[in-house]
Amino acid sequence: MPAALVISGGASFEGKTTIYVVISAIMAAFGGLMFGYDNGIAGGVTSMDDFLKKFFPKVYERKQKAHENNYCKYDNEFLQLFTSSLYLAALVFSFVASHVCTKYGRRLTMRLASFFFLGGALLDAFAVNLPMLIIGRIFLGAGVGFANQAVPLFLSEIAPAKIRGSLNILFQLCVTIGILVANLVNYFVAEVHPNGWRIALGLAGVPAIMLCVGSLIITETPTSLVEREMFEEGRATLMKIRDSANVDAEFDQIVHASEISRQVKNPFGKLLKRSSRPPLVIAICLQVFQQFTGINAIMFYAPVLFQTMGFKSSASLLSAVITGLVNVFSTLVSVYAVDRAGRRILLLQAAVQMFLSQGIIGILLMKDLKPTGTLGRTEAIIIVLLVCLFVMSFAWSWGPLGWLIPSETFPLQTRTAGFACAVSSNMLCTFIIAQSFLSMLCTMQAGIFFFFAAWILIMGFFALFLLPETKGVPVDDMVNRVWKQHWYWKRFMSEDDPDEDMKNSRLEMAASPSRSHS
Ligand code: BGC
User: For a pocket test of ligand 1, which of 34, 172, 175 has the largest count of ligand atoms closer than 8 A to its C-beta?
Assistant: First the structure.
């Protein structure tokens, strides 16, 4: 193989930042914004009285009763289903999407995602009953499943290698911006009676229309064309997006990578082999831990949570806007620090900060928030500050790195399958938290924060002992430089020919997975 073809993760082919690269960044923005908007919108809507009166009158009545238990105001499984149904749908549809993506390309998958999103936004904005509302959420979930599969894949395939890592975190940054926009929308429409919630849910259609228009403008990726044996179109597209006639090396590599991918008949079977255990365990654990930090208890239910603590409706929504802002700005810290300070230090520092903030929130609430009555003003401000400290540390660590690490640690043959396992574990755990948080809050009361703190403690130890540093390690050298050197994981590297894995992974990520990193 010519030297030029051996791409060491960080090396890149000739590639300018052309208009197509700019468009790919914009697509990343729309995909991330849509996902974030849907994550952020439900919490505010479920705290609006007009919405509760229409779909959840029992919750509304309970909220009005003077002596009702603070912690149980919102405990209703259908109310939770409103939030969680999206993630269950996303879990199921991400498998369908992975098939559509391979067989029909990234462009069509993105267009379908935008149709699902638009359908879901319309159904929810005009919902007349609970089933219509939930079906709308399922449509949105299908959109999330399709978009989260296709957009990051599109990004990693179209971007020149040297900016692939930044685009990876850009996607997460846009998720946080989407959450913030949703928080702001909730804040402004809460006083629009009685249909403010319809506006909030319907506005999800705006980024969907943009994604649809975008998917009509963009070109299919060369990798997808080659994967579907349209070699001439693949080469022509590569020349167009790189704005260069000198694309032979990159094209050969795409063809080669695609051949190797095709040879692995059963990537999921290969994932079960012993040598795949280290990246697989780490990918799944990172997703489980990411969700069990309790982040989405805050992202989904912040307004409800703040009302539980006795905040007025608008103060609750405003507090959610503040946590949303902290989320966006702290993600920027990660963009800067991830390749300088490294992954482990960010994860460990954040585990300590998150453990302390969740623990102290639990202690304060246990002491000051009884089932009836409200928090004092000072305590309430301290709690909002602690929530900000928690969100801040999540946003520069377990948030983006939960996605980045699984995308850079699998060898090529198992990369897409491994990443699909990571995505589905994330959706499953997100569903569990969304479906059970309000009930857990009702039964465990302030103890729920100790529950999350306990998980954070476990994940801190996991990161300390079992998570190797991958900063600056080319993706193709993970086996040799990371797994074979690690005190624990090296014992998994002796079986089923890891050298073969390494040989194959020496090809860059032409057939690379979602959110891949260079
Ligand atoms: C998580 C989402 C979460 C978001 C918050 C992402 O990394 O996967 O579940 O809502 O971060 O910013």
Answer: 175
Output the CA 177–ligand 1 centroid distance in Å: 11
Segment 184-233, tens digit of pLDDT: 999 999 889 999 999 999 999 998 998 898 888 888 989 889 988 999 99
Q: Is 46 helix (H, G, I), strand (E, B) or coil?
A: helix
Chain centroid to Cα 489, Å, comes to: 26
> Is ligand 1 within 6 A of the CB of residue 327?
yes
Q: In this structure, what token pair is assigned to residue 175?
A: 């998720």
CATH topology of domain 5-510: Growth Hormone; Chain: A; (1.20.1250)
Residue with tokens 């992974």: 505
- Determine if ligand 1 sits within 6 Å of the CB of residue 334: no
Q: In the chain, what are the domain boundaries?
A: 5-510
514 lines ligand 1 (CB under 6 A): no
Residue nearest to atom 6 of ligand 1 (CA): 399
**Residue found by looking up tokens 């623990």 in the block:** 359
Per-residue CA distances from 373 to 59, 67, 71, 311, 318 (Å): 19, 8, 11, 11, 21
| Alpha carbon distance 383, 362 (integer Å) | 10
For 216-263, the three-class secondary structure string (H helix, E strand, C coil) is HHCCCCHHHHHHCCCHHHHHHHHHHHHCCCCCHHHHHHHHHHHHHHHH
**Ligand 1 near 175 CB (within 6 A):** yes
User: How many angstroms separate the CA atoms of 184 and 385, rounded?
Assistant: 19
Where does 126-247 have alpha helices with state H? 130-158, 164-189, 196-202, 205-217, 222-227, 231-242
- The ranges of the chain with pLDDT < 50 are 1-12, 498-499, 501-502, 507-518
The rounded Å distance from CA 402 to ligand 1 centre is 9
CA distance 271 to 390: 34
Question: Which of these, 325, 319, 322, lies nearest to 305 by C-alpha position?
Answer: 319
Does 296 contact ligand 1 (Cβ within 6 A)?
yes
Q: How far apart are CA 313 and CA 186, in angstroms?
A: 11
Alpha-carbon span 38 to 42, nearest angstrom: 7
Of 296, 393, 425, best ligand 1 pocket probe by most atoms within 8 Å of the beta carbon:
296
